[in-house]
Structure formats: C-alpha cells, structure tokens
C-alpha cells in the first residue's frame, strides 16, 4: 500500500466517538479518530517500511503518525530522523509513545534521550525521559550504564517537582521502569520513589492518574518479574 492509499483507508475508519476521546487527551487536529486496534491491523498487513513510515509521519495526521511508529524500522532511523520526529510531535502520545518507542529501539536512542532530557521544552524533555524508560525496559543490563542510570535517578529526585507537566509524568515513568526492569537498581529506584513522593500532573479533562512509582514497583516484585525485559518497546 502507498501512503495515499493508507490515508484514504484511515479516513474511512475514523470515528467521531474516538476522535472526541483523543481530543480530551490533548491530541490535536488533523486526526480521524481511528481505533488503535485498527491501526495495528493495518500495521500487520504492511509489516514494516522505512520510507512509508516517514511519509505517513510527515502527513501531519495523528492517526497516520501513530501508524508510522508501528511500521517504522528503528534500525534505519538516523539521528536526524529521530530529531525530525521529536520536533514535529505535537501531542503527548506521539512524543511519549511513538517517538520514544522508535527511538529506544534505534541505535541512537540513548544519545538522543540524554540530549532531550536537558531541553527546556516540556514536549522534548518528556520524550527524552520516555525514551529512557523504554530503553531500560528492552536492553539487557549488560548493555546499560548503571552508573549513568543512577545519576539520572538522582536528577529526578532533585528536579521532578520543579519540572514541567508532562516531564514530571515521564520522569515518574522512568523511575518505575528502572525499578521494574533493572534488577541491580531496584532498591535505588524505590529510594528515589520514596524521596519523590506524590507526583502531581495536570491530566486535563480525563480520568487518567499518575501511577505511584513505589506501588507500581511493588507489584512487579510481588509477581516476581523484576528484571524481566520486554521484547519490544512498541505495543505491536
């Protein structure tokens, strides 16, 4: 399928009810309101395609951009491609899911994430922390710099409550991810969560809540899944 054919298909699949929900979650026009399950069906048919993903992302249409993340080939993404996607992402779900997922699975993820978390822009910084959270979830501990991650946890502890809205959300997610997926840093992540305490994020007109990091990590401990990695950052 070409990008033009996919856009026609996406428009036909759009639902006003889904669009209404997406708008409440800070998704911005243009968007059709396609269910994620329908996007996944298309992704399975297409399987993958770097050029197609780039064209869909550049369409500017939310549903097409989300689909682009599902069919992207992270190993073909250059640092410039990731920068382009991050700069163009205009809503939390694209920054914290689509961009973060693809960046984490690419060879440039850690470098870009460490750059992004230093940004003064809430959207870019949040993408950085979300990318880090995904990296620790999929990379083996031998591939991770535990001293670097420990230092990042300290940064979260010192700055989270002074950070911008979505950045606070993804910093909290990073603490959860480290505590859940990096066994040797489980204790430090819990210490960080305890020191941070309750994290307040404006979720707008939605029922979404900020997960308590300490409770979330405790659930992983109860299930004996601490240190068990995910196969993919993307929810395919």
Write a structural description.
The chain is mainly α and 236 residues long. The protein contains 13 helices and no strands. The longest helix has 17 residues. It is globular, with a radius of gyration of 18 Å. The two termini are 19 Å apart.
User: What is the count of DSSP helices, taking H or I runs of 4+ residues?
Assistant: 13
Total domain modules: 2
Shape: globular
Radius of gyration (CA) equals 18 Å
* Poorly predicted ranges: none
Q: How much is the average pLDDT? A: 97
Which sheet architecture does the biggest sheet show?
A: none
Overall structural class, as computed from helix and strand content, comes to: mainly alpha
Assess the beta-strand content as a share of residues: under 5%
Q: Give the end-to-end Cα distance, rounded to a whole number of Å.
A: 19 Å
Q: Provide the helix percentage.
A: 55-70%
Quick one: how many beta strands? 0
Compressed to H and E, one letter per element, the order equals HHHHHHHHHHHHH
Which helices and strands, and how do they pair?
Layout: H1 3-13, H2 16-24, H3 36-46, H4 50-58, H5 62-71, H6 79-88, H7 92-105, H8 109-116, H9 122-138, H10 146-159, H11 165-181, H12 186-196, H13 213-222
Helix pairs in contact: 3-5, 4-5, 5-7, 7-8, 7-9, 8-9, 9-11, 10-12, 11-12, 11-13
